[in-house]
Each structure stands twice: as C-alpha cells, then as structure tokens.
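Q: Sequence in, structure out?
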Amino acid sequence: MAPVPALLICVVALAVSGCAGSGSSGGSSGSSDPTLTLYNAQHEETTAALIKSFTKQTGIKVRVKSDDESVLTAQLEQEGSKSPADLFYTENSNWLQQLDNRGLLSKVDASTLSAVPARDSATNGNWVGISGRFSVMIYNPSKISASQMPKSVLALAGPQYKGKLELAPGETDFWPIITSIERAKGRTAALNWLKGIKANAGSDDNTADNETLVADVSKGLADMGLINHYYFFRLRDEMGAKNFHAKLSLFAPRDPGYVEDISGAAILKSSKNQAAAQKFLAFMTSAAGQRVLANSASFEYPLAQGVAPNPALPPFAKFEPNSITPAQIGTGLDARDLLRQAGLL
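A: Exactly. Output:
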C-alpha cells in the first residue's frame, strides 16, 4: 500500500483536534488557545454577538451553556472546584454575589475593572459590571392616564391601584427593588408593601415573566406593571411601534423603587484557563465589546464611558435612580424571603 501523504494526515488531524505546525491562527485549533466554557444567563443573541466578535479578535473560541440564572448558580455551587465552567455571565448581580460569598470567584484584572464605574462591580473585584438597566413603570394609556401613574413605588400598594397592577414576582429583576425599599423603609414596611401590591394585583394578575407582563399591558389586559426598561424597548422593537400600545413612566428621582440594576460577569476560581478568561472579561468591558452590546437587541446601557447606547433608548442621563449599589443589593436572598412571606412566591 502506498504511504499516506503527510499533508493528508495533517488535514485529517486538523478536523479532529488541530495540527502542530499547521500555521492555523483561528480559535482553539492553535495549541496555545483553549476553548472557554461560559455559563450564560444573559440574552442568548447578545451573548452570541459578543462571543463572535471576541473570537474574531483573539482567536479564542467559547462554548456556551445557557439557562436561567438561578439554575446555573445552583449548578455552579454543586460543581464547586470541579466545575467545567470558566466564566459566568448573568442578568442580575445578586447571583454573582452569591457565588462570591461561597468563595467560587477569581479576582478580575484591575485594568478590566477600571473600564467601568467602580460602583457597578464587586467591591472586592471578584466580578465586573457589564451593562445597566433601570426600573420603570409601563402602562396602557387607554386604561390609565399618565397623570394617574405613581411617582413613588410605595404608592403601588395604595387603594387607588386596586385591580390595575400586573406583577411578575418570580423575576429576579424584582428583587433589587424590594431590597431598596427594605433599606429605605425597613423590613416590616417592605413586607407590608408586598402584601399591598399582592392585594392590588389579585391572584389572576401574577404572570410568569416580564415579557408576558409587557405584552399584557400593550394588549390592554392589564393597566400597568413594574419592569426593567429594556423589556419595553425589546417588545416595541419586535412588534413595531404602530402595533405596540404601552408607554413608560418614571418614578420621582431617587425614589426607593427607582433602581439601576447591573448585569455582570465573573471567572470561576476553578477555571483552568484563567488568562484566556481574563481576556474575555477585558473584551466585554472594552469599547469594542461595549459597542457590540449597545448595538444588540438587548436594549441595555453599556457601562464604559464614551460608548453610546442603542439610539432607540433615552439618554442615560435622563434616569435618576437612587444610590443603592450592587454591593448593597447583595445576594437578594432577603428579598426572596420577603416575597415568600407575602405569598408572592
């Protein structure tokens, strides 16, 4: 039998696991480029766009496991030091804080942390903020007028809103608002507020998610709801402005319900690819990565200075939330406990 040409052997080897000396510059086929594993609880399209741009820039490939942030957090806790994950990217900072409290996260490079405001990342530098969202009210003007919308989140428990409110209490986006109210008014007041909005919403007006809530308000099935701003803009973009019948209302500046919520990312201490994982976080907070985020359909605000948000969004400076930080929001578990005590979970 004639010997198999060396070039053919190399081509076959490349298809399986790469070929030394082949001169390939792309992704994990190079001997020095690992493939990162990202546990992703952010919007999948946005994450895919970030990864595509990162791989194009660095040659490092990223495999993704997407699921709900609570599911992935529990999995990471269970896997511990044996987790295959290199990185965790999530919508809400409280899940990162929960993992950090268990000692599962690595320190983020100082240069990466300095790319975004210090208040938007972990105080100990073990996770970094990537994007921001604001809590707002959404309403249907055919059901309730702009002048009737509350200027304080606390008013939502009042009798004037009986039967007008739809809630998505199972959404983690709701937790920072509860924590903010608890910090401002105390635990008893926060619990009583939750009981009040539960009574106003009624058992038939709790929905599984914010997407459904926004759609219900647009259809006139509910008068109003409490959400993060990006759900409004995402559905309006999907449906088209002519077919979308909801509007936004902002709370008074620095109201307890007026919160900036942070999406963030971290490196697992158990990762065997620390250097490559640091490169991914550095890309996410760089101008290039933040522009990918800004141009995506997530409608979140980039945190890096000088990167303009999606042009469909109001200017970042228009929002005037209260001063609560991710560090003060913490793990959010107190908020979850209050929701359970109020019978909303």
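The chain has 13 helices and nine strands.
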